[in-house]
Amino acid sequence: MTDVRRDPEDLAALREASDVLGIDAQLSPDERATRDRVRAFVDAELRPHIADWFDRAHFPVELAPALGRLGVLGMELEGYGCPGRSAVEYGLAALELEAGDSGIRTFVSVQGSLAMGSIHRWGSEEQKQEWLPPMAAGDVIGAFGLTEPGAGSDPSSMTTFARRDGDDWVITGAKRWIGLASVAQLAVVWAQTDDGVRGFIVPTDAPGFEITVLEPKGSMRASVQTALQFDEVRVPASALLPGARGLRGPFSALSDARYGIVWGALGAGRDSYEAALRHALRREQFGKPIAGFQLTQRKLVDMVVELQKGALLALQIGRAKDAGTLTPAQISLGKLNNVREAIEIAREARTILGGDGVLLENSPIRHAANLESVRTYEGTDEVHTLILGQHLTGLGAFR
């Protein structure tokens, strides 16, 4: 067998070689077109700047309208100016966005799946008409207030409370690790009431609504997370999401966000692998490219094995979502596996890059740091393990 070293500059050929199972052929022309369009956006608008944004802990809010024009905000939602694309198309978009950076994919998830998804699923017709078109365009940004300082994995123990006062609602309490709130115009806030958990659309400039940016961070630095404080925040009756009662409301949005992570994590893993592969093909030691050494090849092979398995998993879950048969256990399996494996890929890719791997000009160290946050939010490894455990045994182990 004659050796012909692959060209590290021919990224298309490298990607074709890494698709050992031919997964690309399982995508429809529309799905590939969506993927390629988002990939081109990431290459043009994110890659030249992302290391600087991460280094400066800068969230590029100016990208919001561009992402709206790209058609990735509220991507799966129908009507009201929303794109109305398939679950698989959204998944592919999430993958390409997170190949750029987890923080940018997180913005799309918070805006589209959490904030817009809650309004679309549970809001009144008036609320949908007012908020969804400008949010789909990226002209209005929304946050999603569920997690609290004392209620992370157990949202049923939330203490934020909304009481009736005449025709108004008055909200008191606190939220923590809320994405986007400092740059948002509205927040979908979940609170206990005398009638159970309800959701409210709350303007972020409402009197008594205080937002604190959580910093400095070692992860998700090109994103923004906040703490919220509600001191007798008054909103009209029209702020209530009429269709949401109980935790089913926020959990439905969380399921959609978790679905996006199943795909998104693959993007971070793939980008880390590609950075390591291209470096290994260029870098020579002991008279040959380090890609020609057995230990390096084993690392690269292990990465591709997990990326291929993860892609099959994501595609199966996406097809189930489009068919309306997707279950919470399936989402948990996908999120648990793909994020866990993506972190290991990013870490191993860093080792191939050697000392240069700690420089932000190379993506694996940034992806590894970001994925620590992705592993925690929208359900920790432990939570998804217990969801699957309950599915397998029929016995809940949360308490």
Automatic annotation (TrEMBL):
Domain Acyl-CoA dehydrogenase/oxidase C-terminal, first and last residues per copy: 245-392
Reactions this protein catalyses: glutaryl-CoA + oxidized [electron-transfer flavoprotein] + 2 H(+) = (2E)-butenoyl-CoA + reduced [electron-transfer flavoprotein] + CO2
Cofactor(s) annotated in UniProt: FAD
InterPro entries: Acyl-CoA_DH_CS (IPR006089), Acyl-CoA_Oxase/DH_mid-dom (IPR006091), Acyl-CoA_Oxase/DH_mid-dom_sf (IPR046373), AcylCo_DH-like_C (IPR036250), AcylCo_DH/oxidase_C (IPR009075), AcylCoA_DH/ox_N (IPR013786), AcylCoA_DH/ox_N_sf (IPR037069), AcylCoA_DH/oxidase_NM_dom_sf (IPR009100)
Residues annotated as domain Acyl-CoA oxidase/dehydrogenase middle: 143-233
Recorded coiled-coil stretches: none
Entry EC number(s): 1.3.8.6
Pfam families for the chain: Acyl-CoA_dh_1 (PF00441), Acyl-CoA_dh_M (PF02770), Acyl-CoA_dh_N (PF02771)
Functional pathway: Amino-acid metabolism; tryptophan metabolism; Amino-acid metabolism; lysine degradation
Protein name: glutaryl-CoA dehydrogenase (ETF)
Gene Ontology biological process: fatty acid beta-oxidation using acyl-CoA dehydrogenase; fatty-acyl-CoA biosynthetic process
Listed SUPFAM superfamilies: Acyl-CoA dehydrogenase C-terminal domain-like, Acyl-CoA dehydrogenase NM domain-like
The species this protein was found in: Microbacterium trichothecenolyticum
Record domain Acyl-CoA dehydrogenase/oxidase N-terminal: where: 28-139
GO molecular function: fatty-acyl-CoA binding; flavin adenine dinucleotide binding; glutaryl-CoA dehydrogenase activity
Keywords: FAD, Flavoprotein, Oxidoreductase, Transit peptide
